[in-house]
Write a structure and sequence with these properties.
This protein has about 210 residues and is of the alpha/beta class. The protein has one domain: Rossmann fold, CATH 3.40.50.880. The protein contains 6 helices and 14 strands. The strands form 3 sheets. Strands 2-1-3-4-14-13-12-9 form an 8-stranded mixed beta sheet. Strands 6-5-7-11 form a 4-stranded mixed beta sheet, with helices on one face. Strands 8-10 form a two-stranded antiparallel sheet. A hairpin with a 3-residue loop joins β12 and β13. The radius of gyration is 16 Å and the shape is globular. The relative contact order is 0.17.
Length: about 210
Amino acid sequence: MIAVIDYGMGNLGSVSNALKSLGGEVRVTQKNSDLKRAEKIVLPGVGAFQNAMRSLAKLNLIDTLKGEIREGKIYLGICLGLELLFEESEEGGGCKGFGILKGDVVKFSVSDKKGTTLKVPHMGWNQLRVKKKNCPLFRGTTDDAFFYFVHSYYVRPLDEDAIAAVTDYGKEFTSMVWKDNIYATQFHPEKSQEVGLKLLENFLKL
């Protein structure tokens, strides 16, 4: 069973429906007991970092979630579900995250080094440059596939070995991490048509 965490901020319908369409047994949940029983955990997310942490704390899910990840349970974080893995975000004046991965979360600048104005949030299709080609989620995809993004903040991992893919938007940023049992994407695979479904299919096969 795959536990998809419902903390009031995720695009749960599209994520859970995509996994179900691929044959996954999915339970959308707010219960610690489901996280402990699940074979895999998915944390989707849209919205503000601080609000997400408050919602998860109110549901008393943070300690269980962190414990399950650290004990080796397969985890997929999507968008905010990636950002929350890190130590701190500058959003909202600064907010602590899970601290499972070293690094922080910062906002895109409104212009790049050449002075070109950038639209924030970064929204739409953009290309990945895969750095860890042995990542099992990339099986059957190309190294330069396009995925769908909607975000104003990006992660800065201190552990470069955890960076699975990068993308350019005014500057190069980390668009996916993979470390042991942890898989997390800044893009939305559930909104990325065939290539996104392939990534989710690979996740189900882990």
